[in-house]
Write a structure and sequence with these properties.
- By secondary structure, the protein is an all-alpha fold.
- It has 8 helices and no strands.
- It starts with a helix and ends with a helix.
- 34% of the residues are buried.
Length: 197
């Protein structure tokens, strides 16, 4: 396992700050990408003194924020058309977007700031766009949220920099546990609720 982590860390060193920016840009676009784990690995390198903390943080925050403007403007300009298409293709996904829109209307910009680490974090850009949030306001709130999210994960990586085994042992316990929770929730929502409610 150490060899695999060494390869990952060496690759991050190879791509450098532009690569970190690009990786977080893809994360902001809502493209499936393990952004949280990536930032933690980057934090390990920061803790080892191989990358500068503030430069790394700036690259990650700006990359994510600029990337998230894509889905935001997509739904800001064509939200109703996209929602109509989703209702035809995937009713469950369209319901999630509508729920997120209601959540956004209830709690406002704080959803954009604090939802990034949560399960709905990838959809926040779509919620804000459909709710017609002012683009400058969205940009500033996303910048703050990304700063908190990326900064926190970098510190997690810095904490685990001295022990790959410690990081791996925690991950090996946490990931199956999270997967089990998702599985139970999926079974409940798809089977139990459909049958009895």
């Amino acid at each position: 396992m150490n060899a695999v982590m060494d390869i990952i860390l060496q690759y991050i060193i190879y791509i450098g700050y532009p690569g970190i920016f690009l990786a977080m840009f893809l994360e902001g676009l809502s493209i499936p990408f393990p952004g949280a784990y990536f930032v933690i690995f980057v934090g390990i390198l920061v803790g080892s003194g191989l990358l500068n903390f503030w430069t790394t943080l700036a690259a990650g925050v700006l990359g994510f924020t600029l990337g998230s403007m894509g889905p935001f403007f997509l739904t800001f300009l064509w939200g109703r058309k996209i929602l109509a298409l989703l209702k035809r293709w995937n009713k469950g996904y369209s319901k999630k977007l509508l729920f997120g829109k209601k959540l956004f209307r209830k709690y406002g910009p704080s959803v954009v700031v604090f939802s990034r680490p949560l399960l709905c974090g990838k959809y926040t850009s779509y919620f804000a766009g459909m709710a017609k949030m002012y683009p400058i306001q969205y940009f500033c709130c996303t910048l703050l949220g990304a700063y908190l999210w990326c900064g926190g994960l970098l510190h997690v990586g810095m904490f685990f920099k001295k022990s790959w085994q410690g990081y791996y042992s925690i991950s090996s316990v946490a990931i199956p546990g999270i997967f089990l929770v998702f599985l139970i929730y999926f079974v409940y929502t798809k089977l139990y609720r459909r049958k009895f409610i």
